Amino acid sequence: MKLSTKLWGGMLCAMLCASTQAWAQDAKPVVQQAVNAELEANRTDQSHWRYRRNEAGGTSFIIVETEHGAIGRHVEEKGRPASAAVLATDDAHNQKFIHDPEMQKKQRANGAQDDKSAVELLNLMPQAFIWKVESTTPELTTLSFRPDPNFHPPDMEARVMGAMSGTMVVDRAQHRIRTMRGRLESDVTIGFGFLARIKQGSVFDVERRQVAPGYWEITETHVHISGHALFIKTIGQQEDEVKTEFTLVPLGTTLEQAVGLLKGTVK
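^ that's the sequence the OP posted. Answer follows.
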């Protein structure tokens, strides 16, 4: 006897729902373990780095981090060695920063706010998406994610994040997030689009690598977001940068010593 259409549809739905739940059950422990590892590293990692930051268009800098703040100096402009005038401007800015506690305080406050936002979004990741393990190797687990319709974002940042679909790659040995790629599947609006609208198709791609034993840092960032806010203000974040040549900065390095590290790396 043939199953009725209604009964067949119900059975199919049940199988699909059960399958989705199985994916989530298999994937979420992997996601939660990765989130826990990142949160623990954020709490305990006090390292500072010297590295080269390469931006789109051929501009690059040497950055030196210290516990008092970070300073930078050009290496190249549009693919050519930085001019003496540009380097002099950098040096003047760095000297001002070194002797201005308010500038240092503002930079640290901005960094602390960025860290706070990152921690909040990390904590939401397991529940914001429906996760699926796509593949595993001895070294890596690759997961896909898509919006969970049952997720209720607490703020605008979480609302944008929760509307994305994409992939995440996790290092299996250390449970650290290696790659995170996402694409906004539909416009995100506030006030029916009159107050703000982040456009469908906005994308981000963040790559992270182990730059020294036990130390993971962001090595590539590609963000392309567009939209508008408050009727006329354009929202635009277009960022493409690659970080290389990581070396640890000794604990206790002063800003004055950081200037020496900067100048010593510029050819």
